[in-house]
Design brief:
Largest sheet: none
Number of strands: 0
Low-confidence stretches: none
Helix content: 25-40%
Strand content: under 5%
Number of helices: 4
Number of domains: 2
Order of helices and strands: HHHH
């Protein structure tokens, strides 16, 4: 039976998924209604059961986080900050920060990974109108 939580194909007669531990009772992951194994859509809420559930991203280690953030910082800045972290003093400034979300940008950059040059991406983003 295919796990409706993670999409793993389990051996017959298993009661729990051997990949994620979810109970192998065919229920809709959105509304919890009982469904048949052969259903393509939930009869209660219409959820497309053919698509596996999105697996939450794994928690990154400190080193993995550093590696990711270094792609967006000038070369050597991370090492400089880490080497002086006991001597760094803060300062108060009034600033304005604007956060925005470009639809699909994060998944796109994660899929392309090292194919994108961060400096080129920043340059392209800076040239966007607005």
């Amino acid at each position: 039976m295919q796990c409706f939580q993670c999409g793993f194909d389990n051996k017959p007669r298993k009661k729990f998924c051997t990949k994620c531990g979810a109970r192998l009772v065919p229920k809709c992951r959105q509304c919890d209604a009982e469904i048949e194994e052969t259903d393509d859509f939930c009869g209660e809420c219409g959820l497309d059961l053919r698509k596996p559930a999105e697996v939450p991203p794994k928690e990154l280690s400190f080193d993995e986080k550093l590696t990711k953030i270094q792609r967006y910082l000038p070369e050597g800045l991370t090492e400089k900050i880490l080497s002086q972290r006991d001597r760094i003093e803060g300062e108060r400034r009034q600033i304005t920060v604007m956060f925005c979300d470009l639809e699909g940008f994060t998944p796109l950059t994660e899929r392309l990974g090292t194919l994108l040059e961060p400096a080129k991406v920043r340059k392209e983003l800076a040239e966007l109108p607005g």
